[in-house]
Design goal:
single chain, 117 residues, mainly beta, four-stranded antiparallel sheet, globular
Length: 117
């Protein structure tokens, strides 16, 4: 079994920044993608950003965070970070780290991000 541990959440005012990190308890060599999702109160979980291992490390972002969030990662350590700048109240949510491999998909427990206006 693999545990994903997120850190870096917290409370910040609008316009501020936070950096989320996620580390896997062990490395899985078949991992091909790591991503962040989020779920706001009363809303469905939604995709935020992803990074592919291999193929140049291509990244993807939800339209709502493009230009404000940056994902990066370390393939060798199965670690991923999400730099979040210019945060808005609508970014308030629980943020989940995910790891996708040929062994299976794994989710972290989530970290709360609260942005006040």
């Amino acid at each position: 079994q693999v545990q994903l541990v997120e850190s870096g959440g917290g409370q910040v005012q609008a316009g501020g920044s936070l950096r989320l990190s996620c580390a896997a308890s062990r490395r899985i060599s078949s991992t091909y993608r790591m991503a962040w999702f989020r779920q706001a109160p009363g809303k469905e979980r939604e995709f935020v950003s992803s990074i592919m291992w291999g193929g140049g490390g291509s990244t993807a972002y939800a339209d709502s965070v493009k230009g404000r969030f940056t994902i990066s990662g370390d393939n060798g350590k199965n670690m991923v970070t999400l730099q979040m700048n210019n945060l808005k109240p609508e970014d308030t949510a629980v943020y989940y780290c995910t790891m996708h491999s040929r062994e299976g998909d794994y989710w972290g427990q989530g970290t709360q991000v609260t942005v006040s206006s």
